[in-house]
Amino acid sequence: MANLEVDFLGMHLKNPFVLASGILGTSPSLMERCALEGAGGITSKSCGAEPRVGHANPVAIAWEGGVINAIGLTNPGAGEEVDLLRKTKKRLAAMHVPLFASIFAPTVTQFGEVARIIAEAEPDLIEVNISCPNVGSEFGTPFSASASSAAEVTREVRRSVGLPISIKLAPNVPNIVEIARAVAEEGADAITAVNTMPAMLIDAFAAAPVLKNRTGGLSGPALKPVALRCVAEIASRVKLPIIGTGGISSGVDAAEMIMAGATLVGVGSAVWRDGPAAFGRIGRDLSGFMDQERYNRIKAMRGKAIQ
Predict the structure, then answer these.
(1) What is the distance in angstroms between the CA of the first residue and the CA of the last residue of the chain?
(2) pLDDT confidence bin for 109, thresholds 50/70/90
(3) Architecture of domain 6-53+71-204+219-306
(4) Domain boundaries, the chain
(5) pLDDT digits (tens, 9 = 90+) for 12-59
(6) pLDDT of 126-151, one tens digit each?
(7) Which of 34, 47, 132, 230 is an active site residue?
(8) For the segment 217-254, what is each residue's pLDDT rounded down to a tens digit?
(9) Three-state secondary structure of the chain
(10) 132 catalytic, yes or no?
(11) How confident is the model at residue 135, as a pLDDT?
């Protein structure tokens, strides 16, 4: 039977599947449930310095290509998040499941401040969501849009904490390899690729956007080809482990992401659709695929499509 165990930054995971940020990562009980259902790692919902109520409803909608959401980074603020993460870490540690804490901020300085606060909970990794707008720039361009701004955030977070950090990159950039190289040079330990893709749905009968926020982030099956391309390009040029995220709904999807070069595989929209049981189903699918194709270990598949 195929062995799904994976080593990642000195951590040993029972399988490569990680709950993606923003999906059920809001309370210790929900994150524990995902671990019990088969997640190898858990990423909490992104948190910032101050509490945010997020956007008005409707904030998410499923369509034939996946999910579009504009939640608005709802979170309790870093101070309260620390207590939540401490409780979660205690529960997950008993199951030998690592906890990744996701953070965001509107300025470079605040990225460092939030990272320092969250580090008090001792998560196993801090995932840095740089797709939020930089309020210090003239047009509020996201930090993920350029190598220089991504590097600046990475440098600040690296200076602020000693924990492993993974920088979460956006897919809608001209040269994702350039950005990946920049964050690697500034001390990133890993890269998460990719975040959602900006998108929009319109209700023709109402002659209006479906989401209250007008636009949102596209995830699910429609994002998978974009994510595979981004992961493959990064893996070919940057020597950091990658958490490949985007459109993973089956074991074959996961195998494709690993063959593109990913070490871990983020699962989000499939959990939004099917609940935490998606982890067990996808894991069984991947194990069956590996047995059929005679792969004994995950490592034997990694990067095979880009060699």
Answers:
(1) 26
(2) very high
(3) Alpha-Beta Barrel (3.20)
(4) 6-53+71-204+219-306
(5) 999 999 999 988 889 999 999 999 999 999 999 999 999 988 888 888
(6) 999 999 776 666 567 899 999 999 99
(7) 132
(8) 999 999 999 999 999 999 999 999 999 999 999 999 99
(9) CCECCEEECCEEECCCEEECCCCCCCCHHHHHHHHHCCCCEEECCCECCCCECCCCCCCEEEECCEEEECCCCCECCHHHHHHHHHHHHHHHHCCCCCEEEEECCCCHHHHHHHHHHHHCCCCCEEEEECCCECCCCCCCCEHHHCHHHHHHHHHHHHHHCCCCEEEEECCCCCCHHHHHHHHHHCCCCEEEECCCEEEECEECCCCEECCCCCEEEEECHHHHHHHHHHHHHHHHHCCCCEEEECCCCCHHHHHHHHHCCCCEEEECHHHHHHCCHHHHHHHHHHHHHHHHHCCCEHHHCCCHHHC
(10) yes
(11) 61
CB atoms within 10 A of CB 286: 27
pLDDT attached to residue 128: 98
Of 190, 9, 4, 11, residue with least CA distance to 97? 11
Q: Which two tokens stand for residue 194?
A: 């990719």
The single residue listed with the structure tokens 């070069």 is 261
Distance CA 248, CA 244 (A): 9
CA distance linking residue 190 with residue 167, whole number of Å: 7
Question: Assign residue 271 a region: left if phi > 0, alpha if psi is -120 to 50, beta otherwise?
Answer: alpha
Which is nearest to 226 in space by CA: 189, 259, 251, 193? 193
Cα–Cα distance for residue pair 81/97, rounded to 1 Å: 19
pTM above 0.90, yes or no: yes
Cα 157 to Cα 137: distance, rounded to the nearest angstrom: 19
